[in-house]
Input
Amino acid sequence: MSLFELRDVSHFYRGVTRAALAGVTLDVERGSLLALLGPNGSGKSTLLRVMLGELEASSGSVMYAGRPSNERSRREVASEIAFVPQAESMAFPMTVRKLVEMGRYPHTGILGRMGSTDREAVDLAMERAGVADLGGRSMGNLSGGERQRVRIARALAQQPKILVLDEPTAALDLHFAMETFELMSELTEEGSFTVVVATHNLNLAARYATQLILLCSGRIEASGLPSEVITAENIQRVYRWPVVVTSPADLGPRKGAPQVTPLSPGPDHKGS
Amino acid sequence: MTRHVILLLGLLLSFLGVLTLGLALGAVPIPIWEVLSALTGSSDPQVETIVLGLRLPRVLLAAEVGAGLAVAGAVFQALLRNPLAEPYILGVSSGAAVGAVLAIILGMTVNSMFALPVAAFLGAVLAIILVLAMARAAGRGLDTHVLLLAGVVIGAFFNALVLLLVTFADLETFRAAMLWIMGSFSGATWESVTMVAVWVLPALTVLTAFARPLNLLSVGEQSAFHLGVDVRQLKIFLYVGTSFLVGVCVAGSGAIGFVGLVVPHALRLVGGSDHRWLLPACAMTGGGFLVFADTVARTVLTPAELPVGVVTALLGVPVFLWLLVRSEESL
Output
């Protein structure tokens, strides 16, 4: 049984005639690292939100572990699925540790008393996300990249089985972008943990993901293994820019992963 | 956590101190020890009448209303993720005043324990629905500026409605109705103290029980949703709960502004924004703050008396402006 099963899912935002998602069918298998690719506005975030029950699909069916996800309580879902948003607008200053502790909400009682297991989960999550030494700092004084890693730590503190990230590396430099993808790949290696990530980073997705989905205007343009999806023809069509795709042999254990290099605009692309 | 417990104990002691001061000060100043002996029932009858009969209900009503308004302010700020949100600025208090005045004019005050708070609550709910609808129609979601503008406009509209309503009323009702707009504790009686207490105390307890989901909500609705909060249900519950709190407070004393702005803000500076500490702290400090403001209102120009809303506005507007300038800077 697939973890997520989406069948012919469409979504329209209120007052917009163009479909944000149009007839999307996909299965997410347990243990996979699924990357959603596609240009700005192609429906990546909408797909994530529909998949996680945050938005209701206008038509089609969305199942999580064999049941419609809105049949479960929010707490029950949150103890299995953690989400890292693109950005958060916090109203009040808060320390890093307090924010990560929020990840324990689905696991603690009404009073929210933190037991030793909770504190251990928070410590471990901060360690893994590389923010162990930021605990006492205020979120407002951190860089965009540090904030992003704190949100990843909070998601890990939920001790989920599935981690979903929306553009996690957009604000990160090369070092932390690599660390984030290494972490996602490490988590899925044991085979029971699943990661779904929406990203603009084609090359890192091609290197680390086990399954890719390429979206354009709310439709799935291509899906499958990196070598099947990341082809010059697919990327050029969807992103409207000339590219070459190569398979460098020196990417360590990931050798052979297709890598995209954009070219200078050809005569056909000037001004488009 | 222990730091917060110590802070709360400190706030409780200062709260009791301000209550005692409120009983001692007035047109006839009474020494503290005589106030205390009056409270234990061993004082001369004249002092006892002033302390227990006149000042105690007034001080208690101010404490209840202050607690309610401060907590309502803190909850609105978390709900809207906006430190400038406040029942009065959002027009909710004015909406509640319309409800209360309408109830009085229609002669529903006979059973005032129930009718007046409910009418004020309905007015408050109507106001918050209008403000949110206006802010949403402007197309920018819960943008700070649009929200404040909508609140001010709706507030002005409801204040005009109150004035329109009282024009048709007799002079006695007119005077009473003016108190709803300005806010005053001069009409405090044991009946009004009881009316506010039976609704405000349970409402405060219930809202405080939602401190943790409020913490999550103040980080962002999407994040709260994925951390396990049923955001839609919680928001409806909190809007209804705070509107009710504001309705009861306005039914007891009229529309008093800025308590819900100044108190939560000062407390966040002292002890941070965790609602598990912030809400009980707001209840005590808000109570103390309004008792203090009311004591100033009735002593500073003796024998004349200022409306308490004037005092809170004089203290609150600078804080509001400072917060507004700071929120501009952080954009």
In short: Chain A is about 30% helix and 25% strand. The interface with chain B takes residues 52, 54, 73-75, 77-79, 81-83, 85, 88-95, 98-99, 102-103, 105-106, 110, 112, 154, 158 of chain A (CB under 8 Å). The two ends of chain A are 44 Å apart (CA to CA).
